[in-house]
Write a structure and sequence with these properties.
- The protein has 462 residues and is an alpha/beta fold.
- Among the domains are: 13-174, 2-Layer Sandwich (Beta-Lactamase); 356-460.
- The chain is built from 15 helices and 11 strands.
- The chain has helices at residues 57-68, 122-125, 129-148, 153-174, 198-210, 222-233, 238-241, 276-280, 302-321, 357-365, 374-401, 411-417, 423-436, 440-444, 452-460, and strands spanning 13-17, 27-34, 38-47, 82-88, 93-104, 107-118, 215-219, 261-265, 287-290, 295-298, 349-350.
- The strands form 2 sheets. It has a 6-stranded mixed sheet, with helices on both faces. Strands 8-7-9-10-11 form a 5-stranded mixed sheet, covered by helices on one side.
- Helix 5 crosses helix 13 (423-436).
- The relative contact order is 0.09.
Length: 462
């Protein structure tokens, strides 16, 4: 692979990142288009240690330059980030490159932030592609502000490049398998005993479905945590399971934005502190499950979560823009207050709404004999029922609004016609429908924003 690769420029800085375990990422690069010299690599990040496949710095530079070739005539809106996916079979690598405009040394340049993986990791990486891209997009937003102000963008990009390397390494060893044996879950038990109370299991599964299948499971016993993780993953699609992670027995992983279900171990003091920013930036609201004390809490519904997420994101970028020096507000600092928005750091609430769908499922599934395939078949039928109800709800709303041409004003009729009078049932089906048609929550509940309390008052009036 070394033939035909230009020697590395001595100006290219390199950071070696210590990652526990085998990191499938070969390297990450930040490059820009120099109007005189063409594509230039500004920085290289590479995992430290023995890799199954090794790229020299010259080869990394060659591949990074490849992503910027042809971008000199790029025409895009201000602030746009283009995602490009290269599969270079002759080099045996895949490159995911985010192309954006930024200012370097007072001149506007076309830049590229890229990650390079072996082609053999394509099947492993694809389910995680959206997670990685969304996280890199946001760090680019902050990086463009840092570039505009003449600060060091490398320090900002490292804040996300390093965690993504750690994420990919952890998913390599602790990813939830695509096919889960029901024998490894709570649903295979003879009954709901002291290890998992019926009300706790019901509330955990119900809230998990209400928050679009996104949950955090924390506890002190890794076996118990992983059993609940596998149980919740039964209600996800095979692709979503590949974006879920079991907990590690010896030490806890960090919380990672974008995963559907992740198990996390408490520290020696019996606590685990969740990072506010990362939780708020998750694409969907999240359920918090503590298996030590059997508590279940959840974030507000999708439309409120998105509203808070975007307001906080604007506040964060605005605060970065107002800085007078790099030391004023580091790019990874939580913005506690702003002129127009003060986030509520206690984002998890008690599960307020009861349901009949999950309650009936739990009551009936444990009537079936364990150890056979009956419970797996019944689970598949239950998930099919929820999917069909979500499709029916979408069709109902399309007909009532003439495919979005009119506002939706008949929530009471929808609940009665589709037998979703219990708020928990409605939330579960709405969450399924949200994943099929993004933005449904915001459309149904109207443009005027309602907090959770106001929304409940409105729904009670129907």
């Amino acid at each position: 692979m070394s033939s035909g690769c230009p020697p590395q420029s001595p100006a290219v800085a390199k950071s070696e990142v210590a990652v526990e375990g085998e990191c499938p990422l070969l390297a990450a690069t930040f490059a820009y288009w120099d109007n005189i010299l063409g594509p230039r690599v500004r920085h290289i990040w590479a995992p430290k240690g023995d890799q199954l496949m090794f790229l020299s710095d010259g080869e990394v530079t060659f591949l990074a330059n490849h992503t910027l070739n042809g971008e000199i005539l790029r025409s895009a809106e201000c602030g746009a980030v283009d995602v490009k996916f290269f599969v270079l079979a002759e080099k045996g690598v895949i490159i995911v490159s985010l192309i954006f405009d930024g200012e370097l040394k007072g001149d506007k340049n076309t830049c590229a932030l890229s990650i390079i993986l072996p082609q053999t990791e394509l099947a492993f990486y694809l389910p995680l592609h959206t997670i990685c891209v969304e996280r890199l997009k946001h760090v680019i937003r902050k990086g463009r502000i840092w570039m505009q102000k003449g600060y060091n963008i490398i320090s900002v990009l490292s804040l996300e490049i390093v965690p993504i390397m750690e994420l990919l390494a952890s998913m390599k060893t602790h990813c939830v398998p695509e096919d889960i044996d029901i024998k490894d879950t709570v649903l295979n038990d003879d009954d709901i005993g002291d290890s998992c109370h019926e009300d706790f299991l019901h509330k955990a599964i119900s809230s998990h479905l209400q928050t679009c299948g996104c949950s955090i499971v924390v506890g002190s016993n890794p076996e118990k945590v992983n059993k609940i993780v596998r149980t919740l993953c039964l209600f996800l699609t095979p692709a979503e399971r590949k974006c879920s992670r079991l907990c590690r027995a010896d030490s806890s992983f960090k919380y990672d934005t974008g995963l559907f279900v992740q198990g996390l171990l408490k520290d020696s003091t019996g606590s685990f502190v969740l990072p506010f920013r990362q939780v708020l930036y998750s694409p969907y609201p999240t359920t918090h499950i503590d298996v030590d004390i059997n508590t279940v809490k959840q974030m507000p519904p999708c439309h409120e979560h998105t509203y808070n997420q975007r307001r906080y994101m604007r506040s964060e970028l605005s605060a970065l823009w107002k800085t007078d020096s790099e030391e004023d507000i580091p790019p990874d600092t939580v913005i506690h207050t702003d002129e127009t928005f003060t986030p509520d750091l206690n984002v998890f609430q008690d599960v307020m709404h009861t349901d009949t769908l999950v309650k009936s499922f739990i009551d009936e599934v444990f009537m079936l004999k364990p150890g056979l395939s009956l419970r797996s078949t019944y689970l598949a039928q239950f998930l099919l029922l929820l999917h069909r109800k979500a499709l029916t709800l979408l069709k109902y709303i399309e007909d009532e609004t003439q495919k979005g041409k009119k506002p939706f004003r008949s929530l009471r009729n929808l609940k009665n016609d589709l037998n979703l009078t219990m708020e928990g049932d409605l939330n579960i089906i709405m969450a399924f429908a949200e994943k099929l048609r993004a933005g449904l929550h915001s459309f149904v509940f109207g443009k005027p924003f309602y907090t959770s309390m106001q929304e409940r008052d409105v729904l009670m009036s129907f």
